[in-house]
């Protein structure tokens, strides 16, 4: 039995699926020759998140780019094929799967299920380049994992624990007797691939932001000069790639080897340059995923440095507010097919306050700033750029803390209050219109 059907059975659902007319009424299509590419827009996130898992999977199958409806989820699903260096051109969309997890009073759980439920509203990949979802959390965070905290209390995703399995915020541990944590990730990846999406996750490389769990002992401080710790770091990431993830976003990658440390805001030593080269190469080799995309946070004009580090894309180099500048850099890198600096709508440090009009223009510049679609620069955006968050929070705040916005202790109330209302829904419609023009390119 495939992992998607196992997930259905773990929720006491049968694997037989029915066409989802709820999605039919809300679907958007790409224009012209891309009109088989479908997704849901003009929607509020809680409308997706409060659906049950069978409704979600039926929605995903109903939005298939194929012309047949599958009454059962197919046994074999392959990742969309955009070539070996797809990551150089991709549009990366980071989803904070902890923020959309199920909040029950002070508990936080099942974020991977919420990430599945949001999939129907993520535009699929274009003809010439892939859309790739990056999930913010997969490893346990060091402090407060599995719990939400008050808005002012730290509960940071920038501190992770290795050798401790996967986060209680993310995995549904209530059903692991029926479907393991690893199988839950496989189900997520297969459903995303069916949607025409690539997938990846964020990782941390700042030494003092990583702990190593030791059975029956106190956690150990991670050290890059400890060979066993380096080996553990590699193997933890290899395991995830073997579950179907295809991209790794590396926080603070710009500063590897003590580069530009005046702008470094992480805590602790970073790998040295040859060590990082070894790590990216070993993850590719051991996982067998030679098409794996490494995305490094930030980049500079020393582009060969990132390319030789094993990266495919950097972020936040090209000024995104100027369309002509984006187009200029697209043309400048049109012959470089392995690595390119990228364009950002926003990043994980975004503190909000940007006008909708400015955000929409940034999305347009990212998706259309080229002469030929096959020369597109890699781009990066956040959940907030597709589903606007409520006004008193922002992307960075939700990376540093894990508040519940529920007024009655239920997940539904949290989901309804985490995002903006009617204006956010209309904004999501406008984002849908932009992608409708982009996906046939």
Label the structural class: alpha/beta
What is the general shape? globular
**Most strands sheet:** 8 strands, parallel
> What's the total helix number?
14
Strand order of the largest sheet: 13-12-11-8-6-3-15-14
On the 0-100 scale, what is the average pLDDT?
A: 97
Spans of 5+ residues with little confidence (pLDDT < 50)? none
Q: Which percent range describes the beta-strand content? A: 5-15%
Radius of gyration: 20 Å
The percent of residues in helical segments reads 25-40%
Structure summary, number of beta strands: 15
Separation of the first and last Cα atoms? 37 Å
SSE arrangement, N to C: HHEEHHEEEHEEHEEEHEHEHEHEHEHHH
For the structure shown, list the relevant keywords.
441 residues, alpha/beta, globular, three-stranded mixed beta sheet, 12% strand, single chain, eight-stranded parallel beta sheet
Walk me through what this model shows.
With 441 residues, the protein is α/β, with parallel strands linked by helices. The protein has helices at residues 3-10, 21-26, 45-49, 53-62, 111-118, 181-194, 227-242, 273-287, 303-308, 323-332, 356-368, 395-400, 411-418, 422-438; strands spanning 27-29, 38-40, 91-95, 102-104, 107-109, 131-135, 160-162, 198-203, 210-212, 220-221, 247-250, 293-296, 313-314, 343-344, 379-382. The strands form 4 sheets. It has an 8-stranded parallel beta sheet, covered by helices on one side. Helix 11 (356-368) links the parallel strand 14 (343-344) and strand 15 (379-382). Helix 5 (111-118) packs parallel to helix 6 and helix 7 packs parallel to helix 8 (273-287). The two termini are 37 Å apart. The model has no long low-confidence stretch (mean pLDDT 97).
């Amino acid at each position: 039995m495939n992992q998607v059907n196992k997930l259905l059975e773990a929720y006491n659902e049968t694997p037989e699926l029915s066409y989802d007319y709820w999605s039919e009424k809300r679907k958007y299509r790409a224009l012209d020759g891309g009109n088989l590419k479908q997704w849901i827009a003009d929607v509020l996130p809680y409308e997706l998140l409060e659906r049950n898992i069978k409704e979600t999977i039926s929605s995903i199958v109903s939005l298939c780019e194929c012309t047949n409806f599958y009454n059962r989820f197919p046994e074999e699903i392959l990742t969309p094929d955009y070539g070996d260096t797809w990551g150089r051109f991709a549009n990366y969309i980071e989803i904070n799967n902890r923020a959309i997890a199920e909040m029950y009073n002070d508990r936080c759980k099942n974020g991977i299920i919420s990430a599945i439920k949001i999939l129907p509203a993520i535009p699929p990949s274009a003809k010439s380049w892939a859309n790739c979802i990056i999930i913010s959390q997969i490893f346990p965070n060091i402090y407060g994992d599995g719990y939400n905290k008050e808005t002012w209390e730290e509960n940071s995703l920038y501190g992770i624990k290795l050798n401790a399995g996967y986060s209680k915020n993310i995995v549904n541990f209530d059903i692991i007797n029926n479907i393991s944590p690893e199988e839950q990730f496989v189900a997520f990846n297969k459903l995303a691939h069916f949607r025409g999406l690539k997938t990846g996750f964020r990782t941390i490389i700042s030494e003092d932001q990583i702990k190593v769990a030791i059975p029956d002992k106190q956690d150990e401080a991670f050290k890059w000069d400890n060979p066993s710790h380096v080996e553990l770091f590699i193997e933890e990431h290899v395991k995830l790639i073997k579950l179907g993830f295809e991209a790794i976003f590396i926080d603070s990658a710009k500063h590897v080897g003590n580069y530009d440390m005046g702008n470094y805001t992480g805590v602790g030593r970073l790998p040295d340059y040859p060590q990082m080269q070894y790590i990216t190469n070993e993850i590719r080799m051991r996982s067998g995923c030679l098409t794996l995309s490494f995305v490094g946070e930030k980049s500079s004009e020393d582009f060969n440095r990132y390319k030789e580090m094993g990266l495919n894309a950097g972020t936040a180099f090209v000024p995104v507010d100027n369309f002509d500048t984006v187009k200029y850099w697209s043309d400048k890198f049109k012959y470089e097919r392995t690595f390119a600096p990228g364009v950002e709508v926003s990043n994980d440090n975004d503190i909000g306050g940007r006008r909708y009009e400015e955000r929409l223009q940034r999305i347009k510049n990212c998706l259309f700033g080229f002469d030929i679609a096959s020369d597109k620069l890699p781009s990066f955006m956040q959940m907030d750029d597709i589903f606007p968050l409520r006004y008193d929070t922002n992307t960075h705040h939700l990376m540093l803390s894990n508040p519940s916005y529920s007024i009655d202790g239920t997940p539904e109330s949290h989901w309804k209050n985490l995002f903006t209302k009617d204006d956010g829904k209309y904004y999501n419609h406008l984002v849908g219109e932009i992608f409708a023009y982009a996906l046939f390119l």
